[in-house]
Specification:
The structure is a single chain. The chain is an all-beta fold and 137 residues long. 0% of the residues lie in helices and 42% in strands. The chain has strands spanning 11-12, 17-21, 26-28, 34-38, 45-48, 55-59, 63-65, 74-78, 83-87, 97-100, 106-107, 114-121, 128-133. The protein has a 6-stranded antiparallel sheet, with no helix packed on it. The protein starts with 10 loop residues before the first strand and ends with a strand. The relative contact order is 0.24.
């Protein structure tokens, strides 16, 4: 299910902050929205991940480029090496590679873009797992 409002990003430890341009006609919401890079226009800009691949991280701020040109705004995100709490679906085993199910949920089905590795279950949020972002491994 796609995010429709800004939420809080829950992260801890080491952070890798990136700032990348947002694709035209896109709105990125914050709370752990998984963002992917698209090269559909040859411009390598961010879009909300639809579970289809090229995940580069988790947005830390909301950006509205719904009426803007490609690269008109940029968005900060947590990239490789960052640790974030993300909701999951299905059965997760710690150490599993996790893949995007949609723009906010991870699972172990390899049909979505790789997000990272399950490190531990969140201590107080049910169906939430701490993920070390590592989309390239």
């Amino acid at each position: 299910m796609a995010l429709s409002s800004d939420q809080q990003v829950i992260n801890r430890g080491e952070e890798s902050i990136l700032e990348l341009p947002v694709s035209a006609s896109q709105t990125l919401y914050a709370r752990g929205i998984l963002v992917a890079v698209t090269d559909g226009n040859g411009d390598n800009t961010l879009i909300p991940n639809a579970g289809t691949g090229n995940v580069v991280g988790v947005a830390t701020e909301g950006k509205d480029n719904s009426s803007g040109a490609s690269s008109a705004v940029t968005c900060k995100l947590l990239g490789a090496g960052s640790r974030v709490a993300l909701p999951y679906s299905g059965t997760i085993v710690l150490g599993d590679a996790l893949y995007a199910s949609d723009d906010q949920t991870v699972g172990n089905g390899a049909d979505g873009g790789r997000v990272g590795v399950a490190e531990e279950f969140h201590e107080s949020l049910a169906t939430t797992v701490w993920v070390k972002i590592d989309p390239t491994a």
